[in-house]
Amino acid sequence: MNLDYASIFDERGSQYHAAMRAHPRARDAEFDQLFAARPLRAGETLLDIPAGGGYLARHLGASAEVTQLEFTAGFSGEVPVVDQSGDWPVGTFDRVVSLAALHHIPDRPGYAARLRAHVRPGGTLHVADVDASSPMREFLDGFVGRYNGTGHAGVYFGADIDWLAAGHRVVRNAVVPCPWMFASRDAMLDFCMGLFGLQGCTHEALAGSLARNVGFEVGPAGARLDWHLRYVDIALD
Predict the structure, then answer these.
(1) Integer Cα distance of 92 and 45 in angstroms
(2) Strand partners, 70
(3) 156-174: pLDDT as tens digits
(4) How many CB atoms lie within 10 A of CB 69?
């Protein structure tokens, strides 16, 4: 089974949301890396789409004026829902962010065009997702797809992003570490079980797949899962 973004998170968005609420700081590095190459400036406006249950906005706090849109009410029901293929009833922004969603959206060029349309002249489009060459694909499409009830067959992208940039200036296009951090190994495994909606697998089976395809370390300070994403920044001059 392989469903699109809205169908997947209609079914298991509530589990994802519960995991993020239980471990709200786990993905801080992933959020911070979005703006590492082009730091946010005071007073900038930002569109986060799809925003899940509002995690980026909570992370940023008052450092940006964030508008959130989602393609499903499955996470929390607190973020306005729009059709991912339709018109989005918002204007233009200094920044538009699409984080860890693109691999669930079949019409990548069409989606990219809609993202760019909401970036004001002089603004930046930020997209981050799993890299096409990453061994994390085996964890997601293999282990997660086997145990999450919705399947997982991502449409990943690599260094070739002509379809995403569409002639605009690429400021950054790189695979960057953004480790997920936890108080303990058990907390890391609990988070992954919920975030990915896993059912019918043991913690030890999950740990084995993470060790093979992602990598993690456990020490006195807690557990670090070696997550990494391809981060792309496109300037619409």
Answers:
(1) 9
(2) 81
(3) 999 999 999 999 999 999 9
(4) 18
